[in-house]
Amino acid sequence: MKRIYVNEEWCLGCRLCEYECAYANSGISDMVKALKGKTIHPRIRVEDGDGVHFAVNCRHCTEAICVKSCIAGALSRDGNGTVVIDREKCVGCFTCVTVCPFGAIMPAADGKAAQKCALCTDNVKNGVPNCVTYCPNRAIVFEER
């Protein structure tokens, strides 16, 4: 299964991946209308520390503890092996947020459900997630390892 990987040595910390993620998941076809003057809620986030920048996103773990710990059954794998959240089933207990060893699951903007990277499965245009396509330094890649 292809996953998103980050080459920290190439990450500039520009946060463009966060904006592209928020835009891709906004459901709005115009980036300015989707993001201008709004607080963004990306499913990927850039962390900074000691001169190193890296994007944190869901790793779609083989033994995903978030899926195992979800009391509502809202987290599951789709047909491609991608870990996804069913917002209709999510009860907002945020157990998944607590157990994720990478900090890749977070409360959604409305605070009623969790959100995480789903590899743009519901909105990708060219087969590659937006954060990968628009990373100016090619620090984020979408590949099988």
As for the CATH topology of the largest domain, it is Alpha-Beta Plaits
H/I helix tally: 5
Helix-strand pattern: EHHEEHEEHEEHE
Shape: globular
Distance, first to last CA: 8 Å
Low-confidence stretches: none
Q: Which CATH architecture of the largest domain is right?
A: 2-Layer Sandwich
Helix amount, in percent?
10-25%
Total beta-strand segments: 8
**Rg on CA atoms, Å:** 15 Å
Q: How many individual domains? A: 2
The biggest beta sheet is recorded as: 2 strands, antiparallel
- Highest-level CATH class of the largest domain: Alpha Beta
- Give the strand order, joined by hyphens, for the main sheet: 1-8
Structure description:
- With 145 residues, the protein is of the alpha+beta class.
- It has helices spanning 16-24, 31-35, 65-69, 95-99, 130-133, and strands at 3-6, 45-49, 52-56, 75-77, 83-85, 106-107, 114-115, 140-143.
- The protein folds into 2 domains: 1-57 and 120-145, Alpha-Beta Plaits (2-Layer Sandwich), CATH 3.30.70; 61-116, Alpha-Beta Plaits (2-Layer Sandwich).
- It is built from 5 helices and 8 strands, in the order βααββαββαββαβ.
